[in-house]
Design a protein that fits this description.
Mean pLDDT: 95
Structural class: alpha/beta
Strand content: 15-25%
Low-confidence stretches: none
Radius of gyration: 18 Å
Distance between the termini: 25 Å
Helix content: 25-40%
Number of strands: 14
Length: about 280
């Protein structure tokens, strides 16, 4: 953990979704204890929102039960209202998107493109397609080629059952992309390519502005490497108990896992005592 001084006041909590605010696979639902904890936050004057690598459409099953009125998808590249009305959209630059698709295919990774409110795949029977359907709550569209959807991609995903392969792809692809796009794993089996500057840190800044909260009163909670940009922005960074040691090392506080109501535990232990 960081060992830095913790803020005395928290006015906004921003949470990651998978591995954090929802229970583990296969259920991936918002536990009653978490819903109750978020209600206690609001009663204490603390705002709440979520940010995820999921497409915004795939976040409704989480945003709804938690009463979230503005949230961020695609790792921060898309910020929307509760009815999915776009507030901000940042697409992967087309040249970077095409490079990413080509390189992921060369590596033998299954490639998906999220664009125009839809999810496009070239293999409906790909290794994690059914898993993602369960997670986001809608079916993909199978295409022979991604065509001009690539020009409007909010996110490109490489999925593989080989976590070491994806780890290598992450490093190699980011080197090729340079500062034209961001390549980060959101799960051990997913590598996300998104807009280079609209990461989860950007999302936290945008959400804090919406709620009128200064960044030194913002707490964040997450479990994966793609959550680290918001750890760097928030005044209080909380890692889940199921996070890797590398992520925990960047946190100010480590809570229990998402199988043990980790977010609810953190709310009670470190957020509510710092209510405005």
């Amino acid at each position: 953990m960081t060992g830095r001084d913790l803020p005395k006041r928290i006015s906004l909590l921003v949470s990651d979704v998978d591995g954090t605010i929802v229970t583990p696979s296969p259920n991936k639902h918002v536990a009653p204890a978490t819903i109750q904890a978020v209600a206690r936050l609001r009663a204490a004057g603390i705002a709440f929102s979520i940010v995820s690598s999921r497409p915004p459409r795939g976040m409704l099953s989480v945003a709804g039960p938690l009463g979230v009125d503005r949230f961020a998808g695609f790792n921060g590249s898309s910020i929307v209202a509760a009815d999915l009305t776009p507030i901000e959209q940042h697409f992967v630059p087309e040249a970077a998107a095409r490079l990413a698709v080509d390189e992921l295919r060369k590596a033998g990774v299954d490639v998906w493109v999220f664009a125009d409110g839809e999810w496009y795949v070239t293999d409906i029977n790909g290794p994690y397609v059914a898993h993602e359907v369960h997670t986001v709550g809608f079916e993909p569209t199978e295409v022979a080629d991604f065509g001009d959807h690539i020009a409007r991609a909010g996110k490109i995903v490489g999925s593989s059952k080989d976590p070491e392969l994806l780890m290598r792809c992450e490093e190699e692809l980011q080197q090729l992309l340079g500062d034209s796009a961001s390549a980060k794993r959101s799960q051990t089996y997913y590598l996300d390519v998104t807009h280079p500057s609209a990461d989860k840190g950007y999302a936290v800044k945008a959400l804090a502005s919406h709620f009128g909260v200064p960044l030194d009163e913002v707490a964040v909670v997450g479990d994966m490497v793609n959550d680290l940009p918001m750890f760097a922005v928030g005044a209080l960074a909380i890692a889940m108990g199921n996070a890797s040691d590398d992520v925990k090392a960047q946190a100010d506080y480590v809570t229990t896992s998402n199988a043990e109501d980790g977010v609810a535990h953190a709310v009670e232990a470190v957020i509510l005592p710092r209510a405005p």
